[in-house]
Design brief:
Layout (H helix, E strand, L loop, with lengths): L6 E5 L2 E8 L4 E5 L9 H7 L4 E5 L16 H14 L5 E6 L1 H12 L4 E7 L23 H8 L3 H4 L8 H18 L20 E6 L7 H10 L3 E6 L6 H4 L1 H12 L6
Parallel strand pairs: 3-4, 3-5, 5-6, 6-7, 7-8
Antiparallel strand pairs: 1-2, 2-4
Helix pairs in contact: 1-9, 2-3
């Protein structure tokens, strides 16, 4: 990510890499396991009409990893602290994939500073009664080619050429993958105690899902929307697990339309 797009800011949990662009109503974006860089085009697009704030989660990108961090709870409380420090109110909370899980964890704890929530192709909740049923594909077990096919409609377009990347960029990718394992390895990509608390998310929510998601199926997204008190579900055509990357303009338009509907807190 270009240095002009992010800065390092001090927090009580160490230095954090922060994107803070645009003006107007605030939006907090929570990135997927791929890191903040992959979401930059979406952030720039959304910042045309809003103040968009997005941090590299602690341990990702250039953000420090506090020694006591290692659970999804830590990320949820970190972002609640960040909202307070930045004094952001009536926030549109947007999370993608792993970031969608963090968004849900934030909202079950407190919606005081939130107006609405958008989650896209989120993980984090288990719905299947059968413990042997696989709801979230094991990204660490799939061959790389299969993982790419399940993640993107046109995987070749998004496949990085590692031979062209700088050492810093390669180190960022390694840190992102290591941090994702730290937070989401065991139990794999979910919080067993999260589902019973979804009723606490008493704010309008939009659940967006890539039509061709091969990591977490659209049926999982429908179950998530049904479990939230005030949510609706929409498919994004031409996208798999990362619609905010593959269909940036469509994704941004859906977020903006949802944010400006009647009844926003």
């Amino acid at each position: 990510m270009a240095d002009t797009k992010t800065v390092l800011i001090p927090t009580r949990h160490g230095e954090i890499e922060l994107y803070d662009e645009g003006g107007g109503p605030p939006l907090l974006f929570l990135h997927c396991g791929e890191g903040l860089r992959a979401s930059l085009p979406l952030l720039d697009r959304l910042a045309r009409g809003r103040r968009v704030v997005a941090a590299s989660h602690p341990g990702f990108g250039r953000s420090a990893l506090p020694p006591h961090f290692g659970r999804i709870d830590d990320l949820a409380y970190f972002y609640l602290d960040l909202l307070a420090v930045l004094d952001l109110r009536d926030v549109l909370l947007v999370g993608a994939s792993f970031g969608g899980w963090i968004a849900i964890e934030i909202a079950v704890r407190s919606t005081d500073r939130l107006a609405r929530m958008v989650v896209a192709d989120a993980v984090g909740v288990r719905f299947a009664a059968d413990e042997t049923e696989v709801e979230i594909a094991d990204i660490y077990d799939l061959p790389q080619a299969v993982l790419e096919q399940r993640s993107f409609v046109h995987p070749m377009r998004w496949r990085p050429d590692f031979s062209l990347l700088s050492d810093d960029a390669l180190m960022t990718i390694a840190r992102n993958r290591e941090a994702l394992c730290l937070y989401a390895w065991a139990p794999y990509m979910h919080n067993p105690g999260l589902r019973p608390w979804l009723h606490r998310i008493a704010l309008p929510a939009l659940v967006l899902w890539g039509e061709s998601d091969g990591i977490v199926s659209p049926d999982y997204g429908r179950a998530l929307a049904a479990a939230l008190p005030d949510a609706r579900f929409l498919l994004v055509e031409g996208a798999a697990h990362y619609p905010h990357i593959e269909q940036t303009e469509r994704f941004a338009s859906l977020v903006e339309a949802f944010a400006t509907e009647e009844g926003t807190r």
